[in-house]
Structure formats: structure tokens, C-alpha cells
Amino acid sequence: MRHITWIVTLPIALVAVVFAVMNREPIKINLWPLPWDVYPPAYLLVLGCLFLGFLIGGAAAWVSGARRRRLARDAAQRAGTLAREVADLRRQAQRPSPDAGAATLLAPPTQGA
Fold this sequence. Notes:
Elements: H1 2-22, E1 29-31, E2 36-38, H2 42-64, H3 66-94, H4 98-106
Antiparallel strand pairs: 1-2
Helix pairs in contact: 1-2
């Protein structure tokens, strides 16, 4: 899995570096209600917008998965509770009950056929 990550990451990083080197010209951005103009390099604007889109998409995916994470957490807690109950019942079944021995001694004899 680590190799696949490198196989995907290296070409993307290479393309980003080549893009940044080839697009160093400044672009005028007018911040309209404010009286300023900004002149960032073209690569900074494009890569910054891509990064911002990545963050927004990640946040949207995280928010949309909240219900599934909550259901999984509740199911894990319920499974833990049930596992503890099963372990308690198994311990009780293995332990001989003191009343069980007395009940067999005091029981009236059954009539044979």
C-alpha cells in the first residue's frame, strides 16, 4: 500500500512543480470592495484554489459520514455490552449452583414404568 501511495503522489507532485515553474507570471486580482489590488503568481492562485477545494470536499465528506460513524460507535458499544453479558452467562453456567444439589436430594422419587 505504501508503494501505491508513492506511485500516485510522485507524478502529482512532479506535475505541480512543473506547473509552478512554468506559470510564475503575476496575475492582477482586484479585491473589489476593498481598495487593494493583489498580484500573486499564477501558480499560487491555481494551486491555492485546488487546495481550498480539497479542504472543502474533505469537510463535506467528513460531515456526511457523521451518521455512519455514530451508528458504528453505537454498534461497537452494544457489541461490547453483549460480549460481557455472554461472558457472565457462561461463567454462571459453569458454576454449580448450591441449590441444584439440594433440590435433587430432596426431590421425591419418581415412579418407574
